[in-house]
Amino acid sequence: MTKVKFAVAGLGRIGKIHLENLLQMDQVEVVAVMDPMEECREYARERKIPHIVNTYDELLVVAPFDSVVICSPTDTHADYVEMAAKAGIHVFCEKPLDLSMQRVVEVLKVVKETNIKLMLGFNRRFDKEFRKVHDLVKQGAVGQPHLVKITSRDPGAPPVSYIKQSGGLFLDMTIHDFDMARFVVGKEIEEVYAKGAVLVDPAIGEAGDIDTAVVTLTYTDGTMAVIDNSREAAYGYDQRIEVFGSKGMAQADNNYEDSHRLYTGKGIQGSLPLHFFLERYAAAYKSEMASYVTSLKNGDTMEVDGTDGLRSLQIGLAAIKSLREKRPVKIEEIGN
Amino acid sequence: MTKVKFAVAGLGRIGKIHLENLLQMDQVEVVAVMDPMEECREYARERKIPHIVNTYDELLVVAPFDSVVICSPTDTHADYVEMAAKAGIHVFCEKPLDLSMQRVVEVLKVVKETNIKLMLGFNRRFDKEFRKVHDLVKQGAVGQPHLVKITSRDPGAPPVSYIKQSGGLFLDMTIHDFDMARFVVGKEIEEVYAKGAVLVDPAIGEAGDIDTAVVTLTYTDGTMAVIDNSREAAYGYDQRIEVFGSKGMAQADNNYEDSHRLYTGKGIQGSLPLHFFLERYAAAYKSEMASYVTSLKNGDTMEVDGTDGLRSLQIGLAAIKSLREKRPVKIEEIGN
Amino acid sequence: MTKVKFAVAGLGRIGKIHLENLLQMDQVEVVAVMDPMEECREYARERKIPHIVNTYDELLVVAPFDSVVICSPTDTHADYVEMAAKAGIHVFCEKPLDLSMQRVVEVLKVVKETNIKLMLGFNRRFDKEFRKVHDLVKQGAVGQPHLVKITSRDPGAPPVSYIKQSGGLFLDMTIHDFDMARFVVGKEIEEVYAKGAVLVDPAIGEAGDIDTAVVTLTYTDGTMAVIDNSREAAYGYDQRIEVFGSKGMAQADNNYEDSHRLYTGKGIQGSLPLHFFLERYAAAYKSEMASYVTSLKNGDTMEVDGTDGLRSLQIGLAAIKSLREKRPVKIEEIGN
Amino acid sequence: MTKVKFAVAGLGRIGKIHLENLLQMDQVEVVAVMDPMEECREYARERKIPHIVNTYDELLVVAPFDSVVICSPTDTHADYVEMAAKAGIHVFCEKPLDLSMQRVVEVLKVVKETNIKLMLGFNRRFDKEFRKVHDLVKQGAVGQPHLVKITSRDPGAPPVSYIKQSGGLFLDMTIHDFDMARFVVGKEIEEVYAKGAVLVDPAIGEAGDIDTAVVTLTYTDGTMAVIDNSREAAYGYDQRIEVFGSKGMAQADNNYEDSHRLYTGKGIQGSLPLHFFLERYAAAYKSEMASYVTSLKNGDTMEVDGTDGLRSLQIGLAAIKSLREKRPVKIEEIGN
């Protein structure tokens, strides 16, 4: 069995997760990693990665490999994907490709011309809970879907410095929910109405963003989805979904630290949801990378592709416009 | 102990419930009932109600009583309340008082001038589930409320003939949720954005109404509520609430037929929610009437008063306007 | 429609419940009640019961009636049933008929000879949770039943004075579980092994009883049931059941004060089970009496009859013997 | 950092799990494995284990190592532990050490004399669910423990050939529950009463074993535990625990495939428990080995030691004696 040769660009929190998962796959060989920080390179050295470099330019020439996993900062994604594509290297890229529609369109053009495979890191599609609901919907278990409800709340707000460059709530956080809204019922969004508020931290408001939101999405068939977000849930990471349809409803709950129940004279107590995405989605990251590697090996269509990145960005930009203009915004207003 | 003398106007489904509950109260004596239909009067005869008449005019003079419970059709509510008020009789009236803001304002003026007590039948406020969440919020258990989520779905659509005269989804069904949104956090609504669709029955659309909706409410303090409705949930009556705040979240679930779980090789099965409002809110109707009677006897402020009816109607009318004009509508646009 | 004429003997806690339920039935007329205590007779007077007397002898002659409901102290049950039977009056009697096997056999002989109907008050058979599991088992949903598990814990121990005359844990509390073990799978018990301890209150031990127990029952087909009891559960009344069989398992949970969940940084909290039997079994008492009245009117076999009382007593006596002799005891050792 | 050098003896199902977990630990180096089967040695070759041999004799001399993980058949455990001990090698051994009390006592004597560390593979102690209940009990959350309830059912019976050499239900399956009964409340068992039946497969009965059991354990302080077992639960692996005490109750539920709920007109459905021990205890096996390695490195007392193996065996043998002699059996009757 020939192993697929991989490089990893960026060994931050997510990069390390992808690297560990790749190292456990029989059909994969990680030949090189790149990170500008010494401590990340040291991390790679302990794992005996053959080639360890400081820059993406070096990475592309240090050794031959079939695929690169891009986990560097968002503003490098577009360039790195293009560079890999032009070198004939397949790409797994963390979302988003870019915050500009125009730039994303350009990159996808290069991807298409170079005929490389591109997969976007919408990890939640590989979470067993969301996937189960998706599968039930696909099997017709709820009939025709009428309403999708997504609750998505983080345990705490990121630093304001991060928010300033991330594109804000709708582009760094809700974008996952926009993708989920499309994925879970396999339908496209036509219109967005976003309402938001600054309730968690005034500094977020001063930075021009919101921290709490309710977003109503309308699919092209007139059915609806509603997403509610908060940057700070006191009880931890809250990630639930519900699809209501003509024949019933499918729900998925959070994953909890454990299932215990303690009954005392004061009431019944249980454990909290898994604290944040690293805990909740640990298995999803593994499945995601396995899906990518399998698709690569079999020459299959990627489960999440560049268009999925484009669509989520469109919805996010429409949400921002809706919030600013206090009106529902059609996706077509965002352009393509 | 002097008993409070009651009359009941209208012995339809709800009228019968209120009558039964009144008959079981030690401090109440039901002296008269009125219904234009013979079978309803026969129902009263079996219960040995002293005076049984055909019309509201007759009712008001057949015997002296302290309070009337109005369960007749919606279009009679305003007149009947006014007539009772002018006769110095206290009133428990099923919601809504009227579908016209102007008429409601007129009636409330008469109520005020005559100094009678008026309670509106927003029964869900007396449901133990909703009340528990309300109490937790009031005690500060979730901190400052940021988001309210209400799911409210009926097991099946009413006849189109009913919808044509009821004012439609927002005035006959969501109006309960509008009241709940105000009640559960004790805050007023400032703005409404309503999105709807006809997904259950095209005849409802032909009658000018919708059967599925997502409504975003903004409170005067900038926090939000979102309501989702459907006229037809295949699995029965779905009535849930969630309040998310700075310190946590409080939820209430449906009430189920029973708690059984059946584990077989095919999965785990359980029973459905109680089928509809008569089952789910049986105890709430009892508590509601007990609250009314107690407030009457003690001369207390009513737990739900005319203003609560007025506010819910305003929100409903704003929702209709929002749906038609495809934009968020301020409550102040509806007038008072 | 001719109404069935009823008398109620004994207006303690349970007597009052039965009286209220009877008063709400259209097909029933309560013509007389008896209680030696003035305050109980006053309670009856407020409900306008036509005949109110002090003694059972008076009751039997004060007015003609079809059926008596016996809720007087346990040591009067046998005599009262016999007296009613000899007067041709049908009987609903609270359990147990008597603590002596011999006396129970005598009474059942009289019941048979006089051809009256007798129903025993094993109210839990009418609880919707237990009945659901019973029905699922009967329908074959779990296949052949292999194991029955019953958890039955009270919120607090009764006074030691009560325990001294009640026959102790196995005869005043577990006897309900013995009946349930027979009912839920429709099989008879052949052998009992009881293990117990005094863990709640030493005074209970000094009175010769235990307050905590694990009882293993073997059915005549070799399958098993296990019951665990405690006189004092800090969190309230704990009444659960589980039937495991060749094709699956059916469980029923407690009924809770409400379904709320409160999520905070400290964990998730919910409400306790309904506190005690009056709350948990309120609906079951109503269904039980309805069943009795319906069986009476239709001349049907009683859902719970004298033999059910006899069998539970046998099991209870076998449990006491097992505990004392520290060995499994066959039901046949108890005699009949 | 010096790595701890490991060997693994036996690469069956459990051996492979331990090997994989060891390979992922930074502080561990697996230097050798032994298995008599070629396919297992091939498995090791793919993982690039330096030394791969056919026999335990060869293993002990092929290279120096600090610890051996013994996952070979039960009848080799005692000899292998002794041989390792005499070679000054620490041991992690799958349970049971042996089916004979005398042989276990001999082995533990050697372990003591040679002063090596020995840990027994009671993996469930490292399951997050059981551990949480253990921790809550230890913290006093339920007060004084009065009753322990353990449900332990396998998804299907092993081959009768396995049962013939395993020691039967109580020694190959319930032995985990006996250990759990001791662990969860930190108390020793004094008496056992076992009742069993052949309900799953007559061939198991013909082999002299049972497939369904209820076992009542009495702790030295007079409190009780009850275990129920079945070789075949149609719905999969059922592993639950409950500790009831003076101040409350702590429970842990199964782990489920996912949390979804599907509501349709027919009822509510959910996913089954994780199918068997490999799925349910995957994380527990990892934690178990981490605990062993950490204790080794730090020179700490092992979390599960030889005495724990001895005690569980005693209880198992007492259960067998109780079943045969149809009476409660004191642990002291088994000897030491």
Automatic annotation (TrEMBL), chains A, B, C, D:
<comment type="similarity">
    <text>Belongs to the Gfo/Idh/MocA family.</text>
</comment>
<dbReference type="Pfam" id="PF22725">
    <property type="entry name" value="GFO_IDH_MocA_C3"/>
</dbReference>
<feature type="domain" description="GFO/IDH/MocA-like oxidoreductase">
    <location>
        <begin position="130"/>
        <end position="250"/>
    </location>
</feature>
<dbReference type="Pfam" id="PF01408">
    <property type="entry name" value="GFO_IDH_MocA"/>
</dbReference>
<keyword id="KW-0560">Oxidoreductase</keyword>
<dbReference type="InterPro" id="IPR036291">
    <property type="entry name" value="NAD(P)-bd_dom_sf"/>
</dbReference>
<protein>
    <submittedName>
        <fullName>Myo-inositol 2-dehydrogenase</fullName>
    </submittedName>
</protein>
<dbReference type="InterPro" id="IPR000683">
    <property type="entry name" value="Gfo/Idh/MocA-like_OxRdtase_N"/>
</dbReference>
<dbReference type="InterPro" id="IPR030827">
    <property type="entry name" value="Myo_inos_IolG"/>
</dbReference>
<dbReference type="InterPro" id="IPR055170">
    <property type="entry name" value="GFO_IDH_MocA-like_dom"/>
</dbReference>
<feature type="domain" description="Gfo/Idh/MocA-like oxidoreductase N-terminal">
    <location>
        <begin position="5"/>
        <end position="122"/>
    </location>
</feature>
